């Protein structure tokens, strides 16, 4: 098969980590007889510098005409003093909106080889940890009506519509079917009307997935459970605000943010894939950035947008094998390991494919 | 001095833990020449059984006429099938409202002797952990307008007024002045208008407390920082919803929920004090419940409502000493320690006063 991939290298370490990742993808193409056509497009700071906008229309058009988008990282101090809508972050929000990316998938994975950097005790995390937060990304209180009454009061509205909840719930159950068939819905239905509404729709969608086990947690309890018993989770589905909090907490308990990918999906199979870490301009261009989060983002792209499950599994296995062989970039290096740069880490992973 | 204390033993283990705690308070009275007059009043399940309401008016009146309220725990499965407004929890919400308790103080304390039950690695928590979440308790989205448009949409409004933010911010800074003089304001000001409003008022209040260091965290980042670097915090001040999530997360990282007290304060010095754990009806009446959370709630009462700092310090020191002597109730027992019941734990702490 032939796949069209829009590639947004972005700023800082973006070009290096994306470069290492597309090489992994090329090797997958070779092994499985796929061809991946990359179209490089601009967004973020580099787009501001060359086109005077963080998100050129051409970028949106090319992304829309692709099967999936791979993004490195956007932003850096160079552009931090620009007004809000001219900043690189506006490019990211703009692209999510333009592409209708309403489902944010945030896996929290702990690798046995990196257990030392996990803040939780070994008896809590066991050998591995692998959960997925499915966060609603384009609704809820972050996009609700807001208002202010002079100096007297201010408010934001947490609102969800039926179609918004239906599609994110469906996405979560579909993902659970590809994993361990367990969905934990997180809300605050004991207090919030919008949560009771949300939960009623999740229960409705659950009927179409009789093989998936469903349970419910209040958000305050979920924040506790992530710390004392994270292994109970497979897929967590939740709203924009709660998902923002819980996905960040979940990534932190793994202790290895430099290793974590993300996906933002729209209807159908289209999606954008990116590491959750930033553009790290201080180490850009030195061949020391860790490309693993981006390489695993590529595995997510194969799994969720291209339906190439075997290929995705192979990349993830190769990453684990490379770690077990002792190869480490500087950010995850510990004594006795073999320190490698961005390019060599990519090559070692390719050798293990 | 003579102090009037309204005592609500409540349900389950409530009467036992409150009984152990008032004995500690009596001993403090003896040592320091104070007299504490207790008036026992009903709330929760026991009030439902005897007065057919979870919160008799007499209880409110007596609480209002007191210097402070000490509460054990309310509720149990016996009353779980009653309608919402007839349940024991309604008594708790009702009393908070009737007494104007807008500031919820939730200390998260890790005792060196109980480090083994902390879910975080020792290098993260060090020898001790002692932070305080100051949560706004009677405003925000839990009390905002709510609405529903048939099956199409539902919403809740997160609103704060200027007086609401002023008083909770002031409370937080006052508390920080009695602690390590550091306040971390937690909001989501990069996205929410109500958070920008909240933050502007916190900044205004900060001017009156030039000795207190102030910083700001977004709520998603705060959820992460609690896991990887909890020692950075002294006082966290935040809204009702964010405080619900973060205070529960903070208590969980201590690994000893049976040890944690809480205070709910109104204007002036009046407050209600209670352990954060529940009524544990399964172990009620067996002299095995842990009274420490309630005894430390009494210390908070001395500190915040009665201005008896030395007396409060003494109770806290006695609890630590008792733990260091190896005395443990069943819930915190580990091998090699001396297992004691509710009454004996209280007595050992009294001996150490
Ligand atoms: Mg976040
Ligand atoms: Mg809670």
TrEMBL record, chains A, B:
<protein>
    <recommendedName>
        <fullName>3-isopropylmalate dehydrogenase</fullName>
        <ecNumber>1.1.1.85</ecNumber>
    </recommendedName>
</protein>
<keyword id="KW-0460">Magnesium</keyword>
<dbReference type="InterPro" id="IPR024084">
    <property type="entry name" value="IsoPropMal-DH-like_dom"/>
</dbReference>
<feature type="binding site">
    <location>
        <position position="220"/>
    </location>
    <ligand>
        <name>Mg(2+)</name>
    </ligand>
</feature>
<comment type="subunit">
    <text>Homodimer.</text>
</comment>
<dbReference type="GO" id="GO:0003862">
    <property type="term" value="F:3-isopropylmalate dehydrogenase activity"/>
</dbReference>
<dbReference type="InterPro" id="IPR004429">
    <property type="entry name" value="Isopropylmalate_DH"/>
</dbReference>
<feature type="binding site">
    <location>
        <position position="106"/>
    </location>
    <ligand>
        <name>substrate</name>
    </ligand>
</feature>
<feature type="binding site">
    <location>
        <position position="96"/>
    </location>
    <ligand>
        <name>substrate</name>
    </ligand>
</feature>
<feature type="binding site">
    <location>
        <begin position="76"/>
        <end position="89"/>
    </location>
    <ligand>
        <name>NAD(+)</name>
    </ligand>
</feature>
<feature type="domain" description="Isopropylmalate dehydrogenase-like">
    <location>
        <begin position="4"/>
        <end position="349"/>
    </location>
</feature>
<keyword id="KW-0963">Cytoplasm</keyword>
<feature type="binding site">
    <location>
        <position position="135"/>
    </location>
    <ligand>
        <name>substrate</name>
    </ligand>
</feature>
<keyword id="KW-0100">Branched-chain amino acid biosynthesis</keyword>
<keyword id="KW-0432">Leucine biosynthesis</keyword>
<feature type="binding site">
    <location>
        <position position="220"/>
    </location>
    <ligand>
        <name>substrate</name>
    </ligand>
</feature>
<feature type="binding site">
    <location>
        <begin position="278"/>
        <end position="290"/>
    </location>
    <ligand>
        <name>NAD(+)</name>
    </ligand>
</feature>
<comment type="pathway">
    <text>Amino-acid biosynthesis; L-leucine biosynthesis; L-leucine from 3-methyl-2-oxobutanoate: step 3/4.</text>
</comment>
<feature type="site" description="Important for catalysis">
    <location>
        <position position="142"/>
    </location>
</feature>
<dbReference type="Pfam" id="PF00180">
    <property type="entry name" value="Iso_dh"/>
</dbReference>
<keyword id="KW-0520">NAD</keyword>
<feature type="binding site">
    <location>
        <position position="248"/>
    </location>
    <ligand>
        <name>Mg(2+)</name>
    </ligand>
</feature>
<dbReference type="InterPro" id="IPR019818">
    <property type="entry name" value="IsoCit/isopropylmalate_DH_CS"/>
</dbReference>
<keyword id="KW-0560">Oxidoreductase</keyword>
<feature type="binding site">
    <location>
        <position position="244"/>
    </location>
    <ligand>
        <name>Mg(2+)</name>
    </ligand>
</feature>
<keyword id="KW-0464">Manganese</keyword>
<keyword id="KW-0479">Metal-binding</keyword>
<feature type="site" description="Important for catalysis">
    <location>
        <position position="188"/>
    </location>
</feature>
<keyword id="KW-0028">Amino-acid biosynthesis</keyword>
<comment type="function">
    <text>Catalyzes the oxidation of 3-carboxy-2-hydroxy-4-methylpentanoate (3-isopropylmalate) to 3-carboxy-4-methyl-2-oxopentanoate. The product decarboxylates to 4-methyl-2 oxopentanoate.</text>
</comment>
<comment type="similarity">
    <text>Belongs to the isocitrate and isopropylmalate dehydrogenases family. LeuB type 1 subfamily.</text>
</comment>
